[in-house]
């Protein structure tokens, strides 16, 4: 079983100070042993990855609580807003998570009302894993 077989992972991205910020994330497998997920171009996760492509992924529950005894997997992230990897992430997330995508998009829209546009899933994050158990 690989990290991309998990339903949720705690993805940890890093601030300029080096401090890690962990958030629960959906995850899908990509070719060549890579993993992918999507995020918003307005999210903190996107901004942190733009500044530092290092990331760790660890199996978690939907709230980001890490599963015991599961070590983090390190990787390097590449951001994409179009192309085959972006398209594959879009298709695979919708296939794996189904109606949860629609519900998540609705809650995201409601949560950002009055704060201007907040794109949903407009950036694909392609993770090349540097170590995998």
Layout of SSEs?
Elements: E1 8-14, E2 20-26, E3 28-29, E4 35-39, H1 44-51, E5 54-59, E6 73-80, H2 84-97, H3 99-111, E7 123-129
Antiparallel strand pairs: 1-2, 1-5, 3-4, 4-7, 5-6, 6-7
Report what the structure shows:
With 133 residues, this protein is of the alpha+beta class. It has helices at residues 44-51, 84-97, 99-111; strands spanning 8-14, 20-26, 28-29, 35-39, 54-59, 73-80, 123-129. It has a seven-stranded antiparallel sheet with strand order 2-1-5-6-7-4-3, with helices on both faces. The protein is globular. The mean pLDDT is 88.
Number of domains: 1
Strand-pairing-aware structural class: alpha+beta
The portion of residues forming beta strands comes to 25-35%
- CATH top level is Mainly Beta
Order of helices and strands, N to C?
EEEEHEEHHE
The tally of helices reads 3
How are the strands of the biggest sheet laid out side by side?
2-1-5-6-7-4-3
Could you give a short account of the major beta sheet? 7 strands, antiparallel
Kindly state the number of beta strands. Answer: 7
What name is given to the CATH topology? Answer: Pnp Oxidase, Chain A
Query: What is the CATH superfamily?
Result: Electron Transport, Fmn-binding Protein, Chain A
Radius of gyration: 14 Å
Overall residue-averaged pLDDT value: 88
C-alpha end-to-end distance:
9 Å
- Low-confidence stretches are none
Provide the helix percentage.
25-40%
Principal-axes shape call: globular
